[in-house]
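Posting this for the archive.
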Amino acid sequence: MLKGKNDNTVTPKIVCILETEPPKVLAYRIIGDNISASIRLVIYDALVSTRRPATLVPAGLEWGIPTQFYTEVGLDDEVGYLIREHLQVQIQQDVIQSHLVNALRGNWDVDLTNRVMGQDHFDRVFDNYLHRIHGYGPRRVQADLTEKYKSLVGYSTVFRVTLVTAGI
């Protein structure tokens, strides 16, 4: 449970962007009051997570733009337009079948059942779970990349991803 406003407790909901090959959570956000804003931010986080320093251009960046975008949640018209027109990626709304999605929908948080924590603490616990069990914690990876490329201005490897959103 998360400690909410006025010390109320709320069950956390998470929106995730998944890469399908290899399966991993590329980015996630704990959903706040504005679901649409959370979805926009997690898409942004996923795109930023793919940037790496360009190998052939000294001051350039390479970005891994998705080849497909599958979603289980409805996207508002503006987000859909940006994905279709600016990224030139087709959007398909369907139920996502994936071992990783099923694991995240399962009882991964059973040890947290009677614990109340702040959102920052929950965020660290979730990222640690992803790293420990699924081999890739997006916050940890981003921190490692920030350290690795700290001498560069605005760094990021090109790889193709399929993005998937799944409300947990």
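The two ends are 14 Å apart (CA to CA). The chain is about 35% helix and 20% strand.
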